TrEMBL record:
Pfam families: NeuB, SAF
The protein's name: N-acetylneuraminate synthase
SUPFAM superfamilies the record matches: AFP III-like domain, Aldolase
Gene3D superfamilies, per the entry: Aldolase class I, Antifreeze-like/N-acetylneuraminic acid synthase C-terminal domain
Classification of source organism: Bacteria, Bacillati, Bacillota, Clostridia, Thermoanaerobacterales
GO aspect biological process, one term: carbohydrate biosynthetic process
């Protein structure tokens, strides 16, 4: 069991749902605050941003990912794109305070040591490690020493790389680890999701698991919760048509709310796993099941034979499985055809 803010993450707790704002604020703190407001309205547990300085993150001549080229100026470098999407450290602190005011948990993915230090000074509730840093073991160790919960995305990685990251965290004494299955493509194709790999992570490492989703739509996160995901992270935007690399693979507020409502319905429907007649089924059981009834008039003293009996609704009498208790016994009274037989009618 892990606590993030006032939320508990564990096998008996509802899924912790993160609205991944990322850089969809487009470098505007005002837009970021509007996103926080919208995330609160959807019922999200947390909203997550990305904190970085472009010069600490990427070389100035680094190319963009293919999906970024499709959604932004393909002639622009990754550095120039990220520079426009930066928020200052003071702005992140402002957003954290605004989240506290609005009653939603602020989270952020740091991409460099300096940014991690800012989050530490702000007493962030948990650290998110992006998939790109799964092999950045010095960085993971640096963050793990804060002894805060760590949510680790595992896109692009194999079990050996994930194990290395976990070992690095555990050597610091930090056991507060949540693993998110992830496919690092925007958008991710359904055929590539491999959602069962989330269960592989759970079985292999015995930590709570979740799913960071980059598919279009809401089906896969809902399925992930049905399979046991305890954390769901999904990209969030106010408008898919805004300029920027991630808007088109994100959910707008009404979609995000629909996803959360569906997840909560699925969680409610999972139940305790005990197979029994539920209270709500009691009436239907009486109506839909059948009882042993007479298929002819039976006179008092007659020995009841199988061909004198049939089964019909309702199920308020002797069930068909017990018909053997009736055959061969004598009728204590006259019994008309289509009568539900009870034991007090028999000798």
């Amino acid at each position: 069991m892990i606590k993030i803010g006032d939320r508990i993450i564990g096998e008996d707790s509802p899924a912790f749902i993160i609205a991944e704002a990322g850089v969809n604020h487009n470098g505007s703190v005002e837009l970021a605050k509007k996103m926080i407001d919208a995330a609160v309205e959807t019922g999200a547990d947390a909203i997550k941003f990305q904190i970085f300085k472009a010069e600490n993150l990427v070389l100035k001549n680094a190319e963009k990912a293919e999906y970024q080229k499709k959604t932004t100026d393909e002639n622009e470098s990754q550095y120039d794109m990220l520079k426009k999407l930066e928020l200052t450290y003071d702005q992140h602190i402002e957003l954290m305070k605004y989240c506290q005011q609005m009653g939603i948990i602020y989270l952020s993915t740091p991409f460099d040591f300096e940014s991690a230090d800012v989050l530490d000074k702000c007493d962030v509730a948990a650290y998110k490690i992006g998939s790109g840093d799964i092999t950045n073991l010095p960085f993971i160790e640096y963050i793990a020493r804060r002894n805060k919960p760590m949510i680790i995305s595992t896109g692009m990685s194999d079990l050996g790389e994930i194990e290395d990251a976990i070992d690095t965290i555990r050597k610091t004494g930090n056991e507060k680890i949540i693993l998110l299955h992830c496919i690092s493509n925007y958008p991710a194709d359904y055929r590539d999701v491999n959602l069962n790999a989330m269960l592989t992570l759970k079985n292999a490492f015995k930590f709570s698991v979740g799913y960071s989703d980059h598919t279009l739509g809401i089906e896969v996160p809902i399925a992930a919760v049905a399979l046991g995901a305890k954390v769901i992270e999904k990209h969030f935007t106010l408008d898919k048509n805004l300029p920027g690399p991630d808007h088109k693979a994100s959910l707008e507020p009404f979609e995000f709310k629909q996803m959360i409502n569906s997840i909560r319905n699925v969680e409610c429907s999972l139940g305790d796993g005990i197979k029994r007649c539920m209270y709500a089924e009691e009436n239907a059981r009486k109506v839909a099941r059948k009882s042993v009834v007479t298929d002819c008039d039976i006179k008092r003293g007659m020995v009841i034979e199988r061909d004198m009996l049939t089964v019909k609704r309702p199920g308020t009498g002797i069930p068909p499985k017990d018909i053997g208790y009736i055959i061969g016994r004598k009728a204590k009274i006259d019994i008309l055809k289509d009568t539900i037989i009870s034991l007090d009618m028999l000798e």
